[in-house]
Structure to design on (661 residues):
């Protein structure tokens, strides 16, 4: 059994807990007693937060729409389509025809990189997220 | 938040409005309840009889959308009775005369007429708040999700400054952020008008700084589109492509039918997520991402504390961390990137963001996170803001007048629908509905109806009812409860089977762009 320190993926309180793993599978949650935010307590969402991670519904391959349907694809094909399309639209319509929606659920580093991509790579300030919710 | 979660323990009074804290921020909710049980006072301003009402010294149930009038009324009494902090107002603020002249019109009698709160209760709340030594204002989306959201926020700040309840421990204006990294997304510049640390895109010096840091020329120096404007631009055909990471606007945005039209009108939609959400089902390309448990990185909580989360397990199948996917897209688009780990990215954030300059991986590991601003590696971080002065020097009172909801009830749509969340579910349900215990406790959408209204409409507990606005109709189960006042119904946006955002009004605050989720006109009837 191993324990890894993580931050709860739900609300903005930012409670800390250890994810407990056994042979690479998540088996439970243990709150972090020393952490100043939650001091060893969690709510029902935090206690059960590992469950959705191992849901059978998780996406496991890139999907690409073919003949109207989303079909399994490879990273190479999916990323090739994404970059080609975004560059083509920027070329033809200008950068303001592109927009980027970032996430209040991913890390700071990922939010940073996402807005850097919108601004430095594709040339637009059309970048926002759902803070409004 | 201007202040910190631990300070909830030493405050003497909480002024809580527009947050159902025990449901949405349970750990902060329990901090408040503990403090109240130790003798702190609680003024709750909320139309619904939420769990905190049971602990409130005073519960003011305002008519929906009248928050500015409530707080102006409280300030009128505070000024009239000379209960304000004269020294603080003189030394640290400007614009007091303007504030005084605006709020003078909001006498308790006038406010009673607008808000439905008894004049005597306005007076009592004013005295309690002003006379407390350490008073914290705590709010959430009930304040911001209105066409007057910016006015509501300004009015909270006016109230705190008037009484000197800011810049000390156990005081301040404390918005509770709904998702685990909303604060971080804003801090990192996932906003159309700013780079990291709120550095403005229209400022030429900032533009040059980022052009150098990122080794590019000609960064866009005009404000970009907000999410609301993006959807409108897509519908007009001006916006051609949208790249969405980890969001589900098809469930979360108001007037869903228009969002669907907007997304279908795009030439190209990419969605990067951990599940095939309602939004992802419309995409041209879907990229599988790693969840929080499968990657490392930092998150910033509602008290501005940057904390590290580590990778516990491998992502399923071919799923990859969001940062790796973004890096790959950038490379293929011809921009060189070579980050080997999230820490490489954090080091770049430290370099370009003054308020995060001292927040290094080493320190967040050792110190249980750090609260920004933290301008250098020796700085201890900042537990509370505005200690000796405000960011811009003096704090300016920005008085606002009361303005009604964008859509008020009429003869046909005679109820107000207000929306929110419940304890056992979260947001659009993408994660929480895949947790057995949560799904068992809160398995389906429910609309709360007041008993008197229910009797008049012939609705019994658990009946199926039809709820309609000018934008759409949903059917769901009725719960007859005193929790909601007359002529108000409440529901949540967790359930795809009854998407409440088909009904909500996309009218939004002109400054923040936040839609008015907290009040629109609806009608309700029992299903035949
Ligand atoms: S455990 Fe509960 S209170 Fe703590 S961050 Fe998670 S959802 Fe919020």
């Amino acid at each position: 059994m191993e324990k890894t320190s993580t931050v709860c993926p739900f609300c903005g309180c930012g409670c800390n807990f250890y994810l407990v793993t056994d042979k690479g599978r998540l088996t439970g949650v243990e709150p972090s007693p020393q952490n100043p935010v939650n001091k060893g307590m969690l709510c029902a969402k935090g206690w059960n937060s590992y469950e959705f991670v191992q849901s059978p519904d998780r996406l496991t391959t890139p999907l690409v729409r073919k003949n109207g349907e989303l079909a399994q694809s490879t990273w190479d094909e999916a990323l090739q389509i994404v970059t080609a399309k975004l560059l083509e639209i920027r070329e033809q319509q200008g950068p303001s025809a592109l927009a980027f929606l970032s996430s209040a659920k991913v890390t700071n580093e990922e939010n940073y990189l996402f807005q850097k991509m919108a601004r430095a790579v594709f040339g637009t300030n059309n970048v926002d997220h759902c803070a409004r919710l | 938040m201007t202040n910190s979660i631990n300070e909830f323990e030493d405050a003497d009074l909480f002024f809580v409005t527009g947050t159902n804290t025990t449901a949405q921020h349970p750990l902060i909710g329990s901090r408040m309840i503990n403090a109240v049980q130790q003798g702190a006072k609680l003024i709750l301003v909320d139309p619904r009889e939420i769990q905190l009402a049971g602990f409130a010294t005073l519960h003011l149930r305002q008519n929906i959308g009248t928050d500015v009038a409530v707080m102006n009324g409280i300030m009128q009494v505070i000024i009239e009775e000379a209960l304000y902090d004269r020294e603080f107002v003189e030394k640290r603020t400007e614009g007091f005369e303007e504030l005084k002249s605006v709020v003078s019109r909001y006498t308790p009698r006038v406010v009673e007429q607008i808000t439905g709160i008894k004049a005597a209760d306005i007076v009592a709340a004013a005295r309690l708040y002003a006379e407390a030594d350490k008073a914290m204002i705590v709010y959430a989306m009930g304040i911001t999700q209105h066409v007057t959201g910016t006015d509501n926020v300004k009015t909270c700040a006016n109230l705190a400054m008037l009484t000197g309840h800011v810049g000390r421990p156990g005081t301040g204006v404390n918005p509770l952020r709904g998702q685990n990294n909303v604060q971080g997304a804003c801090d990192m510049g996932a906003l159309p008008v700013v780079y990291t640390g709120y550095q403005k895109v229209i400022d030429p010096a900032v533009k040059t700084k980022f052009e150098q840091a990122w080794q590019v020329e000609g960064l866009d120096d005009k404000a970009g589109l907000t999410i609301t404007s993006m959807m409108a631009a897509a519908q007009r055909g001006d916006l051609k492509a949208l790249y969405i990471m980890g969001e589900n606007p098809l469930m979360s945005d108001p007037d869903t039918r228009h969002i669907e039209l907007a997304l279908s009108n795009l030439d190209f939609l990419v969605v990067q997520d951990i599940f095939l959400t309602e939004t992802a089902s419309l995409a041209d390309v879907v990229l599988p991402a790693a969840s929080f448990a499968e990657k490392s990185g930092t998150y910033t909580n509602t008290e501005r504390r940057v904390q590290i989360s580590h990778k516990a397990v491998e992502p399923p199948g071919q799923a990859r961390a969001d940062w790796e996917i973004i890096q790959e897209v950038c490379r293929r688009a011809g921009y060189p990137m070579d980050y080997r780990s999230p820490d490489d990215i954090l080091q770049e954030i430290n370099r370009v963001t003054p308020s995060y300059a001292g927040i290094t991986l080493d320190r967040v590991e050792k110190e249980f996170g750090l609260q920004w601003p933290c301008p250098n590696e020796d700085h201890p971080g900042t537990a509370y803001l505005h200690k000796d002065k405000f960011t811009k020097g003096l704090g300016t009172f920005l008085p606002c007048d009361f303005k009604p909801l964008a859509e008020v009830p009429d003869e046909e749509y005679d109820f107000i629908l207000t929306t929110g969340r419940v304890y056992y579910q979260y947001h659009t349900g993408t994660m929480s509905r895949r947790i057995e215990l949560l799904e068992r406790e809160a398995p389906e959408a429910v609309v709360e109806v007041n008993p008197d209204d229910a009797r008049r409409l012939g609705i019994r507990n658990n009946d199926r009812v039809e709820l309609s606005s000018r934008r759409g109709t949903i059917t769901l189960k009725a719960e007859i409860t005193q929790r909601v006042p007359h002529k108000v119904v409440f529901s949540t946006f967790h359930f795809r089977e009854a998407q409440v955002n088909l009904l909500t009004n996309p009218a939004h605050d002109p400054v923040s762009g936040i839609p008015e989720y907290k009040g629109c006109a609806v009608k309700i009837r029992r299903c035949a």
Remarks:
- The CA atoms of residues 43 and 123 of chain A lie 42 Å apart.
- The pocket of iron/sulfur cluster is lined by residues A 8, 10-11, 13-15, 38, 42-43, 45-46; B 25-27 (CB under 6 Å).
